Amino acid sequence: MKIKRQKDFYSGLMFAIAGASFAIGAGNYNIGSAARMGPGYFPLLLGGILSLLGLVVAALSLRSSEEPNTIGSIAWKPLLLVIGANLVFGILLGGMPTIDLPAMGLIVAIYALVVVAAMAGTKFSLKSALVLATVLAIGSYLTFIVGLSLQFQVWPTFISG
């Protein structure tokens, strides 16, 4: 059996594995029933649906296709920058005591996240990245601090005291 559409096959396989992982992880919680759902009910249901859809996509990729659909080379720069942006966000938000880096807070972490992730694109504009970061920082502040009253650091320690 030959894979006709590699992109569909591997993306379907990825979704099936991710869905199965969530469904298996949901087993650690009380599932309950449809009438009285437990905390594991919804992740189990969504994980099962995602796995099923992933398997369908992977199976359909084995059918014939008029055009070749192969996977090209891995785009390392965007991949590493997007993952790195998330790591930088986490480190700046919570700090890193092992290297004496204090928590920089939500606002600084959002600006760093957006600027680093924007460098992954083909056209990088610092101005547009800063505008987007400003909108996201204001929206995050209003949502999480004002709206939900979550208690975490917004500003760096040397500013907020």
Q: What would your notes on this structure say?
A:
InterPro entries: DUF1468 (IPR009936). The chain crosses the membrane at residues 12-29, 41-62, 74-95, 101-122, 129-152. Keywords: Membrane, Transmembrane, Transmembrane helix. The chain is mainly alpha-helical and 161 residues long. It has 2 domains: 6-60; 76-160, no CATH class. Helices cover 62% and strands 0% of the residues. It is built from 6 helices and no strands. The chain has helices spanning 6-26, 41-60, 76-94, 105-118, 126-147, 157-160. It starts with 5 loop residues before the first helix and ends with a helix. The model has no long low-confidence stretch (mean pLDDT 88).
Present the secondary structure layout:
Elements: H1 6-26, H2 41-60, H3 76-94, H4 105-118, H5 126-147, H6 157-160
Helix pairs in contact: 1-2, 3-4, 4-5
Transmembrane segments: 12-29, 41-62, 74-95, 101-122, 129-152
Organism: Variovorax dokdonensis
Domain DUF1468: 12-151
Give the amount of beta strand, in percent.
under 5%
Q: Treating each run of at least 4 consecutive H or I residues as one helix, how many helices?
A: 6
- Provide the helix percentage: 55-70%
Structural class: mainly alpha
Which regions are unreliable across 5 or more consecutive residues at pLDDT < 50? none
How many strands? Answer: 0
